[in-house]
Model the fold of this input.
Amino acid sequence: MEEPSLPERTRTAAEAVDVTPRKTAVAGGKAGPPAEPPLASGLAERIAAGIAAGLAEAAKTDPARWAQVSEQELLLWIAEDTKAALAELAASGAQEDSR
Done:
């Protein structure tokens, strides 16, 4: 059986996500000023959004095939996609540092 292929993760899918800072609770039950998420948290949310968008698109393309994908295969693909996203980020950071 041929493995379903994941579409290439696109930077636009990850960048299109609006990462809204969470509000912190204060006394009296009112929301305090928005708390900025740590850089790693925002990055993780963008990577996850890119992966989710890619998987959703692949599942729409051939849902019967994706219903047979094992959890282990899915986790492996997610890990590979995350690794690729981090490599892209490192490469773009290195390019910006050289300017």
